[in-house]
Amino acid sequence: MSTSPYILVLYYSRTGHTARLAADIARGVEQAGEIEARLRVVPSVAPSTEVGQPAIPAEGPIYCDLDDLEHCAGLVLGSPTRFGNMAAPLKYFLEQTSTLWLSGALVDKPCAVFTSGGSMHGGQESTLLSMLIPLLHHGMLPVGVPYTNAELMSTRSGGTPYGASHVSGHAGAAQLSADESVLAIALGRRVAKLAKRLGV
Predict the structure, then answer these.
(1) I need a labelling partner for 139 at 20 to 30 A (CA). Which of 69, 99, 112, 166 fits?
(2) If residue 17 lies in a helix (H) or strand (E), which one and from where to where?
(3) Domain 6-198, CATH among 3.40.50.360, 3.30.450.40, 3.90.1150.10, 3.90.78.10
(4) In this predicted model, what pLDDT tens digit does every residue of 50-89 receive, in sequence order?
(5) At 10, which helix (H) or strand (E)?
């Protein structure tokens, strides 16, 4: 395992929209320099029980474990919007982090959140805010997107001061809008810069 500092970009993505945001956030982390982006995902779960998953996903980033979370210099957490809240697989993973809460492993580390959804008013902002709640319980320091990013005023799709977001539409837009991409990159860069400043 690498001993260099890293920002953990941890997410769940079912159709690829949240994964596209994660890729741009990771790009922003890398742009900050001297700190790497570590992309990780969580496995799906079934409504009644855990679904058996292979140890390594067939494609994309590998599954996150508690070591990835414990040793990160900062965290950017992402999920599709599910009725104004994060998806169950990500919530399930967070509910397994009690040992890190007890030890204070994440206290004073910067964190941010991102989401994607099918419609403009489909609950993205409440999803972002609800995703911050467990991170606040861990003592993390939330980072948003400030209005010094002009794209917050020009976007006609995703992008909020609470975190990066993407609106895919009912047809499922294959790409992020230019503004969504810029704001996702800016969020990753901001978390990385703050982590470096804090010396986490």
Answers:
(1) 166
(2) helix 17-31
(3) 3.40.50.360
(4) 555 666 777 889 999 999 999 999 999 999 999 999 999 9
(5) strand 6-11
Tokens 């993407």 label which residue?
A: 166
| Residues 88, 141: Cα–Cα separation, whole Å | 23
Q: How far apart are CA 198 and CA 137, in angstroms?
A: 19
Q: Phi, psi (5° rounding) for residue 162?
A: -85, -15
Q: What is the pLDDT of residues 131-170, one digit of tens each?
A: 999 999 999 999 999 999 999 999 988 899 999 999 987 6
Which pTM was predicted? 0.92
Output the DSSP codes for 158-179.
S-BTTBEEEE-TTTT-SS--HH
Partners of 11 in beta bridges: 41, 78
As a dihedral over the C-alpha atoms of residue 80, residue 97, residue 44, residue 15, rounded to 10 degrees, the angle is: 20
Q: With H, G, I as helix, E, B as strand and everything else as coil, classify residue 109.
A: coil
